[in-house]
Amino acid sequence: MPITKSAKKKVRKDKKRMQNNAFYVKAYKLLISKIKKKKGDLKKLLNQFYSKIDKAAKKHVIHKNKAKRLKSKISLLVKKLQSS
Questions:
Q1: Which pTM does this prediction carry?
Q2: What is the spatial distance between Cα 61 and Cα 82, in angstroms, rounded to a whole number?
Q3: Separation of alpha carbons 64 and 62, rounded Å
Q4: Which tens digit of pLDDT belongs to each residue from 42-80?
Q5: CATH T-level assignment (fold) for domain 5-83
Q6: Which of 4, 21, 35, 42 has the fewest CB atoms nearer than 10 Å to its CB?
Q7: Residue 37, Cα to own-chain centre: how many angstroms?
């Protein structure tokens, strides 16, 4: 348990930041599952996914290279799903 005043404040801040970060991660993971299940227009879902990933990278929730890697992986998946 934190003892000093600053350590207690850090715990509070970390808790809030963890919730905010989880919001961004959940948003793009939900879209990944929708794309994999083909729920809705794939092109529209892909645009929403790109937006969510870019925002997560901008807020430093995920690394920019991870964002690029996810976008590449999902775009290949969408291409494959559209051709079949």
A1: 0.84
A2: 30
A3: 6
A4: 999 999 999 999 999 999 999 999 999 999 999 999 999
A5: Methane Monooxygenase Hydroxylase; Chain G, domain 1 (1.20.58)
A6: 4
A7: 18
